[in-house]
Specification:
149 residues, mainly beta, five-stranded mixed β-barrel, four-stranded antiparallel beta sheet
């Protein structure tokens, strides 16, 4: 299950990437993530829901050298955090998958899911993250398998 409902969709096909859920203003065409009911650009109340691209370009990043808060992977020594520019316009902040030397500003990134923890009901709680698009298969295989909700 997503850590926060309404921010991303887990696809029914386990091989398909998750989709971030944004909105587009019907009046000025500005695109937002996360979704908005009122356009922050022109203040109209006429927005529509939109599934955003699964790929983007790394705008900036940093690497944090201790485990992600509340992660079941406490043995992992750190994680990247970055901002990814999506083709539709929004700049999305997200956790990055990879080591401290794996990222370069401008590189193509692709979205994936990571299991953060298990909730009281025994369900996996997942977050989205981005990884370098040219990451090795070993990196992708190390990603947690997530069942669709």
């Amino acid at each position: 299950m997503p850590i926060e409902p309404g921010f991303f969709r887990i696809p029914a096909d386990p091989n398909a990437p998750p989709r971030l859920l944004g909105s587009r203003c019907r009046s000025c065409q500005e695109v937002f993530y996360p979704r908005r009911r009122i356009c922050a650009r022109c203040l109209t109340r006429d927005t529509e829901d939109l599934e955003l691209s699964t790929r983007g370009s790394l705008y900036t990043y940093t690497y944090v050298h201790f485990p992600l808060f509340n992660s079941r992977r406490a043995d992992h020594g750190g994680y990247g955090v970055g901002q990814v520019d999506l083709p539709e316009g929004p700049r999305v902040q997200a956790v990055l998958s990879g080591g401290p030397g794996d990222f370069r500003v401008g590189m193509e990134m692709v979205i994936e899911l990571e299991t953060l923890r298990e909730n009281e009901a025994g369900q996996d709680v997942v977050v989205y993250r981005f990884r370098p698009a040219k990451a090795t298969q070993a990196t992708s295989a190390a990603s947690a398998k997530v069942e669709p909700s």
